[in-house]
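[Meeting: bench + compute handoff]

Bench side (C.D.) handed over the final construct sequence. Compute side (W.E.) agreed to return the predicted structure before the next meeting so the bench team could plan truncations. Sequence as handed over:
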Amino acid sequence: MSDLNEVGERDNWICWLCDTPVDPDASVNSDRGPSVDSFEVARSKKKSDTVERLAHRSCNTMKGKIAPVVPWPEHLLVVDPSPIVATVDRLNKKGGREAIARCPSREDGLEAASWLLDRLSRYSPESNFDVEVVPGGGQFLLMLKAA
């Protein structure tokens, strides 16, 4: 297991689950204190890698009780957004691409695409995704594609 400070510095002291800052000076026993979440990612039938990410202690504890949710920020203009966690899990298993949201303008779509790629780099650092903004029906679809 890596040192908490190494993981915190790598993740810019941002919780991978709730996407809010983690206080590096908080007690590790505090609910909002830092903790390292680690899990195995299968690379093949015989090989797996351990991935470690920074989380608040309470976020890390609660993910065992409830499925984690990556929220879309309120400042983005997205319509009918898909749940990010479920979509990422499906694309990691099956590949391909999926519509993940609709946006009223290309500019809104590009802003949402930029945010989504940045967020996925923290949520699923072992994955490689592309986001396309595709016109259709007077709106723009955000298409998440496993690369």
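W.E. noted at the follow-up: Strands lie at 34-42, 48-56, 97-103, 129-136, 139-146. C.D. will use this when planning the next construct.
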